[in-house]
Amino acid sequence: MMAAGPDDDLVVGDRYYILASSVAADLPRLVLKHDDAFLVADRRGDFPSLPGAEFGFYAEGTRFLHRLELRVYGRKPLLLNAAVSDDGVEAAIDLANADIPDEEMLGTSGEPAPAALPGRTVRIHRLVTVYRHHLYQTAIVESFAREAHWLEVAWEFGADFADVFDVRGHPRRRRGVDLPPCVDRAAVLLRYRGCDDVTRAAALHFAPAPTRLEAGRAVHTLRLAPGERVELGLTVRATVGAPTALRSLGRPAALAERRALAAQRRAGDTTIAADHPAFQAWVDRSQSDLQLLMTERADGLVPDAGIPWYVAPFGRDSVITALQILPFQPDVARATLAFLAHHQASSEDAFTDAEPGKILHEYRTGELAACREIPFVPYYGSVDATPLFLVLLGEYLRWTGDLPLARALWPAAERALAWMARSPVHGGGFLRYQRRSHIGLEHQGWKDSQDAIMHAAGEPAKAPIAVVEAQAYHFAALLGAARAADVLGHAEVARECRRGAEAVRERFETHFWMPDERFYALALDGADAPCRVVASNPGHCLWTGLARADRAEAVARRLLAEDMFTGWGLRTLSAHERLYNPMSYHNGSVWPHDTALAAAGMARYGLVEPFMTLVTGLFQAVHHMEGARLPELFCGFPRAERHGPTRYPVACAPQAWAAGVVFHLLGAMMGFEADAGENRLTFLHPRLPPWLGWVEIRGLRLARSRLDVRVTRGRESAAVELLSRTGDAEIVVRR
């Protein structure tokens, strides 16, 4: 079904399609986040109320303010500059007044004043931060006029209490009730009682008290002497249900606590320094974005998937992000494993596609989830989160040797293995998916768009579907489980898992290989017919080591052909395929994490030239991204001279596994092979690209040791120098 909506938006049949606003897509954004509270603002720091726009202040899956705009005499100030701090916790915006005609100026009694106020006479320095469900703003108003003058500064605001799925364009069955606003001398309380019978409230407090205050507007009438500065403060507190005892702070105190928390979270992280300024900027931005996306859960920091659409835990995204950064931040893997094990499905539920042993796909807590209008409560419609959980467990043990966690998670690992072995749609020994929930996801691999899995003529594949990358994860999951079983002394289970992995490889090579294409099929449909389509997915088979060595080289060569490689990264679908569209979500766009997985796979097979080609393409793409921030995806148009990649209008930025790309590639450059059991870290064929001279990694953790190393590019390979060591870990370099 297709229908034209407001502003000519196109609504397609996919229930969870994200609408693209033709207005909002043109506007640059500022993003701040702390745990599950975040804001998306324009570069003025405003939340403009635009159709289909994502601007606003959110918490717990709800948009609490959809409008917040600063006005001077009713006019938008002029934007001078806007930036987010390097640590990602504060936005600083410089604004100036526009020209104010004399008939709009106010005198002491509200009568017109005799002189106009020229533009850029008043500076407004706007400071914004988010902390513990609070939005803090300060507008520092400073006059550079030659005479005293009056000034009217207003905050204009509104609360729609939209569920994030409302904002994305999800059609609602019904809506709750807006409660009457409460207006005090310096505060406004906006409330909404949802269909889940929960009251959500936005409490706005102004300091000093405004001259006039209404339910949607706070006006400060100021008399400013030359050189005088006045601070106007606004605090917005978001609450769900009964208000908690959480205190509201002033912005300076909130910022200090937020910065201290960010520093505490970074305290044990590995640090990375490099000789190339652009590469260093990429590393620094990615570290900052990952910190921004972390949310404190019961067992530690777990990455949310992305802002604004995916500020929630996702099984697949969280695990892949944890794998990307595992050598540098192993605590994230630990917390992610514990969180996912805690929420592992224990019973059948068709509505959420839950089956015993499955790892969640997505977990939402907003009004629509509470009313079960969406199945993400949590939702288990993912074929790959469960095997990826086992992959992460095995890799985490490689690096840490964390026996207590291995023991604690072994029952969850056994349940995951049992699910992979017994699920009724796993016909032919392949990991398959088939939706049971009537409002669940039709496709349950990482490409979950409605039209993402197809045959060569363009017709959709019918379930139960075995996507190629799920077989790669299945293979790696069995080996990861074998590693955990070895550590825990379950020798027979370990042998059984390794036999199972070899059986997966044999079946895979027989059924997925396309000799004429020298490539693997995208999927097998419910009748075991291969989807003879060239897509990026087989690159994941290189990443896990599933592909046969001779075929891995052919796959790498095919991925770097002109119809797949744009010059920046790998298209999700070949430009020769029937459904190719470089502006689509999954059928021709470039996803940086997808390209990085394939690149890491090429490094695994010793395919240095194609590996470096992809590393360099992504690195050069970063040059064209604002603030060196890789987005979730970008369009798959061919690279053109003097132009950067074409952006995808509703891509998340920051996005977790896009932020993890640089660390994944760095690990592949190093050729890390960790063995905590033997207390040994091997650098297997380390290599650096020609534009990178050296990298220093400090605080690298293996088991209980900490290592500082410097890796320097050489003619054939890289040299590894141990700078310092705490503990007795051994370093081995194999060139």
Give structural notes.
This protein has an 8-stranded antiparallel sheet, covered by helices on one side. Strands 3-4-5-6-13 form a 5-stranded antiparallel sheet. The protein has a 4-stranded antiparallel sheet with strand order 7-12-18-17, with no helix packed on it. Helix 7 (385-400) runs antiparallel to helix 8. The radius of gyration is 27 Å and the shape is globular. The protein starts with a strand and ends with a strand. By secondary structure, it is an alpha+beta fold. It folds into 3 domains: 28-260, Glycoside hydrolase, family 65, N-terminal domain (Beta-galactosidase, Chain A, domain 5, Distorted Sandwich), CATH 2.70.98.40; 268-670, Glycosyltransferase (Alpha/alpha barrel), CATH 1.50.10; 681-734, no CATH class.
State which percent range the strand residues make up: 15-25%
CATH class of the largest domain equals: Mainly Alpha
Question: How many helical elements?
Answer: 16
Q: What is the overall shape?
A: globular
Uncertain segments of ≥5 residues (pLDDT<50)? 1-14, 107-114
| Tally of strands | 32
Number of domains: 3
CATH architectural grouping of the largest domain? Alpha/alpha barrel
> Helix coverage percent of residues?
25-40%
